[in-house]
Amino acid sequence: MNRAWAIATLLLVAACGSTSSVSANGSDAATKATTPQNDLTVTAIEFGYDAKQWTVPAGKPFTVHFRNQGTIEHEWSIIKLGRDIHKQSEFSDDHVLTEVEKITQETVSEKVITITKPGRYQILCGLQGHFDAGMHSVLNVV
What SS3 string covers the chain? Predict the structure, then answer.
């Protein structure tokens, strides 16, 4: 019994000490954030996204598979360069370059997007109160 306990403890410590982060689709989170991806799987919950940033290629189409695993509606809006907001009250629809419109819980929406100008784009959920609750990220276009 002591040997089994020691092995279980060792396995638990090894698992907790891991610094690698793997997303649900098997890709490394660090690679997803820095290497341009043509296919993004984005998951929304209350109140955030599954990644702090994504990277896509400039001038080439990429597909967003937007999944809502929360219990309320969410959206994924790309804000125009130079139009970042710092609080919800600054947001208006004219800030939006493009978006995956709001979807209900347990649904998925797909959209093909092409952004020609490289830069750091703010991502947010523009639904009332969601930005202030922390629902924002970054899209790097390189």
Answer: CHHHHHHHHHHHHHHHCCCCCECCCCCEHHHHHHCCCCEEEEEEECCEECCCEEEECCCCCEEEEEEECCCCCEEEEEECCCCCCCCHHHCCHHHEEEEEEEECCCEEEEEEECCCCCEEEEEECCCCCCCCCCCEEEEEEC
